[in-house]
Amino acid sequence: MPKPGLKETVTDCPAPAQQPRREQILDAALELFAHHGLNNVTTRQIAQRVGISQPSLYAHFPNREAICAEVCLRAMDTLYVMLTTALDPLASLRTRIITLGRNYVQFGLNNEAAYRVAFMGDVTGDELPERDRVMGAGLRAYEVLYALAVEACGGESHDCALLAQSIWASIHGLVSLLLSCREFPWVDIDGFIDRHIDILADQLCRASVQQSGPSMRQI
Amino acid sequence: MPKPGLKETVTDCPAPAQQPRREQILDAALELFAHHGLNNVTTRQIAQRVGISQPSLYAHFPNREAICAEVCLRAMDTLYVMLTTALDPLASLRTRIITLGRNYVQFGLNNEAAYRVAFMGDVTGDELPERDRVMGAGLRAYEVLYALAVEACGGESHDCALLAQSIWASIHGLVSLLLSCREFPWVDIDGFIDRHIDILADQLCRASVQQSGPSMRQI
DNA sequence: CAATTAACCTATCAATGATAGGCTATCATT
DNA sequence: AATGATAGCCTATCATTGATAGGTTAATTG
């Protein structure tokens, strides 16, 4: 019983210890999502790319949304890593916020699907919990920004929270707009990004000098 | 010509000349979209609300997307009207940008579905042309902001375009974030909005004084 | 070797957008 | 008033898509 066929699915790949199915599925999904957008990819497409039948996906994930969620979650984790590892604690506040901003924008432009799910309400299905998990992962990125605002304001405060949220809104607007209006005649995208981030840096630094000027909090 | 039965569909409503079917469909769709989101409303739901069969929709619109597009297009038209009529040409630049900003944000929060289609890439189907029409209508709102930037900069220029786009990104970010992260613990939404718009006003006014200060462009 | 388990596959659902074809009533023309 | 055209609807039916049911194969375990 040599049985040469049939087993191919598993023994196809020579030696490299064959990536587990679950990972293969996530990889295939990631690539398809990046190419066609989260909502233009069917479970059948994912399955075909992996080389298995469509129902087989459900042996590894409870539903389509879980696949989307996991792909996006992993992406948001890399965002957090990008933001934290890029910050040199010895650099000036201004340098750090600029670095943070550039990394944030770069991530958004390179990980559209995940960014949309986390921060643009791009829903992957009717269920909220999955999206909330992705958003939660994304919010860790906000925490990094918030920490900078705390430092600029010399401690946590109402104003400090407002500052952080305002800067977040501005930089998110940049990413969101670039993603959504790709064919808009931007004067000069790179210049636009740099300029916009510069303005945010100004905003943060203004708060910083205001705080260190009087050198005394009111109370 | 008594003929009391059957004709009800048309003679049901007493005198008010019965709104045409097409309008009824758009009204029903608008309400459902506002309630459940553009992508969570089926053609059957729309039809049921109007009181006709689902295939009958296709006598008035080529497809579902056309219904979405028309609903959103009309909404974006009201945005343009809101922005233009609210601007008192005699008011200060600062007053006008603040008014513009507040109206823009208010519109976005009250017309989520349309705003998402126009500026957040919320696709109503696979077809792009319909979405482009909606975005085009939305871009007229940007033109109003752009005009303010031109005024602040004392004429069109590269910097003026950058200024307008930067302000647009910031205010769009505010709307987009509030729409997408509804459960985020915003310190104080109204304060956040006002503060954010104030900062945009500063940005615009700074460009204005810079221009009128030296009183000479660097040719 | 038997039993368990993991991973698949085929067949099939239900929901959804869309099409085909026929019925009814109004209206213009004779 | 009879006739033909047209508008507007309806029932039946598709194809696509996410998801489930039930059975089969093969590796693991006792």
Number of strands of chain A: 0
Low-confidence stretches of chain A: 1-17, 215-219
Distance between the termini of chain A: 87 Å
Kindly give the count of domains of chain A. 2
Topology order of chain A in helix (H) and strand (E) letters: HHHHHHHHH
What structural category do the secondary elements of chain A indicate?
mainly alpha
The portion of residues assigned to helices of chain A is 55-70%
Biggest chain contact: A-B, 41 and 41 residues
Radius of gyration of chain A: 22 Å
Could you state the oligomeric state of the chains shown? homodimer
Percent strand of chain A equals under 5%
The major beta sheet of chain A can be summarized as:
none
CATH architecture of the largest domain in chain A: Orthogonal Bundle
pLDDT averaged over residues of chain A? 86
Looking at the structure, the CATH topology of the largest domain in chain A is: Tetracycline Repressor, domain 2
Tell me the CATH superfamily of the largest domain in chain A. Answer: Tetracycline Repressor, domain 2
Shape of chain A: elongated
Structural overview:
The structure is a homodimer of 219-residue chains. Chain A folds into two domains: 1-61, Homeodomain-like (Arc Repressor Mutant, subunit A, Orthogonal Bundle); 70-212, Tetracycline Repressor, domain 2. The longest helix of chain A is centred in the middle third of the chain and has 25 residues, at 129-153. The first copy, chain A, contains nine helices and no strands. Helices cover 68% and strands 0% of the residues of chain A. With 219 residues, chain A is an all-alpha fold. Chain A binds a DNA duplex (30 and 30 nucleotides) through residues 6-7, 9-10, 21, 42-44, 52-56, 58-60, 63-64, 125.
